[in-house]
């Protein structure tokens, strides 16, 4: 390849790289990064907080004001969506100004504290949903993380056993997930590694009592595996 051809190839590759760097993500591709703004839902952030979340998403995905406006419109819901049908806005600045004006921040601190006190984990609710609904309420009320942590633990009503003291929300979620896994363990074949069960079945261990090397007692194989696993888990709680 001669010098002219090499220079042309380099110029072409450079142009492709620059085009990729300047690519702006379609707002529909990242729509779900911003929570919907629905004033009727208690966990919905304030108008100011919601607008700020769009600005942050735009900075991350190279979105201009038109991108922000589209993202905002797509994430309106409930009363806010009805509001948009009757408001005259054509730019991002007009949109955010009108939204903050028509949905003024009115945080009922007492109401938020009461809501968090009453918020209990539902039987079939995922741990993450329960956790982040508390976080959303706390953020809306501008509560300190320490207060949010106390409300989250209070709403569990001791169902996850003893929770050690933590200082951050991520630490709490990590500990709760670990406790949930330990709590859900049961002395059944379904919770023993398949390779262990296969070996045990082929040797007849499951049908007979075997001696535990830790206590010299005779127990069912699966019970021994479960008991040792539980003891091991407790050492790290």
How would you describe the overall organization of this protein?
It contains 11 helices and 2 strands. Strands 1-2 form a two-stranded antiparallel ribbon. Helix 7 runs antiparallel to helix 8. A hairpin with a 6-residue loop joins strand 1 and strand 2 (218-220). The chain has 237 residues and is mainly α. 58% of the residues lie in helices and 3% in strands. The protein is globular, with a radius of gyration of 28 Å. Among the domains are: 25-102, no CATH class; 109-185. It comes from Aedes aegypti (Yellowfever mosquito). This is AAEL008200-PA.
Shape: globular
Total strands: 2
Please tell me the overall pLDDT.
Answer: 74
How many whole angstroms does the radius of gyration measure?
A: 28 Å
Question: Which helices and strands, and how do they pair?
Answer:
Elements: H1 3-21, H2 47-60, H3 65-74, H4 79-85, H5 92-102, H6 109-118, H7 127-140, H8 145-156, H9 169-184, H10 194-203, E1 209-211, E2 218-220, H11 221-234
Antiparallel strand pairs: 1-2
Helix pairs in contact: 2-3, 3-5, 6-7, 7-8, 7-9
List the main descriptive attributes of the protein structure presented here.
237 residues, mainly alpha, two-stranded antiparallel ribbon, AAEL008200-PA
Short précis:
This protein is 58% helix and 3% strand. With 237 residues, the chain is mostly helical.
């Amino acid at each position: 390849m001669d010098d002219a051809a090499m220079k042309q190839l380099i110029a072409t590759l450079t142009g492709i790289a620059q085009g990729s760097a300047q690519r702006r993500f379609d707002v529909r591709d990242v729509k779900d990064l911003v929570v919907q703004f629905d004033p009727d839902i208690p966990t919905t952030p304030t108008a100011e907080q919601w607008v700020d979340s769009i600005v942050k998403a735009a900075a991350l995905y190279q979105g201009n004001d038109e991108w922000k406006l589209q993202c905002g419109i797509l994430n309106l819901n409930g009363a806010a969506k009805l509001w948009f049908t009757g408001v005259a806005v054509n730019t991002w600045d007009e949109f955010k100004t009108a939204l903050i004006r028509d949905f003024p921040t009115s945080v009922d601190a007492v109401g938020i504290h009461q809501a968090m006190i009453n918020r209990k984990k539902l039987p079939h609710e995922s741990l993450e949903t329960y956790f982040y609904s508390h976080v959303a309420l706390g953020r809306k009320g501008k509560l300190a993380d320490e207060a949010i942590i106390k409300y989250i633990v209070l709403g569990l009503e001791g169902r996850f056993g003893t929770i050690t003291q933590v200082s951050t929300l991520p630490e709490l979620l990590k500990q709760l997930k670990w406790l949930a896994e330990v709590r859900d363990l049961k002395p059944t074949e379904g919770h023993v590694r398949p390779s262990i069960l296969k070996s045990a079945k082929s040797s007849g261990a499951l049908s007979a009592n075997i001696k535990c090397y830790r206590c010299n007692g005779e127990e069912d194989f699966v019970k021994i595996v479960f008991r040792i696993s539980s003891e091991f888990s407790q050492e790290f709680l």
